């Protein structure tokens, strides 16, 4: 059996933080079958800032029982058509923001969509796992612990 010392082991569910958006304590479900990561958002509205495309949205945190939300803005990376396992397609806005999982910190693309009927407010897809050099042990959960929110980023322009 091959082992890779540079890969970090994560469980099927992990705590993440999105410091550029000022979000910490997000429970994320790991989904190796999804290519792109997803963040629960509503009131999604594109706009322009200094001639560049941006998007404002309400980010939803917490569980179905303990709900919290906050308004955020981020540069718009692209639009993406997502096809569900049932064949349903949806057009989504894509943002890129730094993510912290355990002791790792790297930029991750998230599509924005309503996940209000889902247990987890964030879903981590295969691209984020590859870029973060992570390997999943589905028998484990919350292996990496809860990341602390870093000082708010100012260089990205996210408000």
UniProtKB/TrEMBL annotation:
Query: Pfam families this protein is in?
Result: Zn_protease (PF05618)
Q: Which UniProt keywords apply?
A: Hydrolase, Protease
Q: Does the keyword Protease apply?
A: yes
In its UniProt entry, the species of origin is given as Geopseudomonas aromaticivorans
Give the domain of life.
Bacteria
The reply on keyword Kinase is no
Q: Which GO terms describe its molecular function?
A: peptidase activity
The biological processes this protein is annotated with in GO are: proteolysis
Report the protein name in the record: ATP-dependent zinc protease
Which InterPro entries does the record match to this protein?
A: Asp_endopeptidase
Question: What are the residue boundaries of the Retropepsin-like aspartic endopeptidase domain, all occurrences included?
Answer: 9-146
């Amino acid at each position: 059996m091959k082992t890779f010392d540079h890969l970090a082991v994560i469980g099927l569910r992990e705590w993440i933080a999105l410091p550029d958006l000022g979000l910490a304590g997000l429970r994320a479900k790991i989904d190796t079958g999804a290519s792109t990561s997803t963040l629960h958002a509503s009131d999604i509205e594109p706009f322009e800032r200094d001639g560049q495309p941006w998007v404002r949205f309400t980010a939803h945190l917490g569980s179905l029982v303990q709900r919290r939300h906050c308004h955020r803005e981020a540069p718009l990376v692209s639009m993406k058509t997502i096809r569900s396992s049932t064949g349903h397609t949806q057009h989504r806005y894509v943002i890129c923001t730094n993510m912290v999982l355990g002791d790792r910190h790297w930029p991750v693309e998230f599509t924005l969509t309503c996940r209000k009927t889902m247990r987890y407010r964030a879903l981590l897809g295969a691209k984020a796992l590859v870029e973060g050099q992570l390997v999943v042990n589905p028998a484990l959960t919350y292996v990496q612990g809860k990341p602390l929110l870093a000082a708010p980023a100012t260089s990205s322009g996210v408000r």
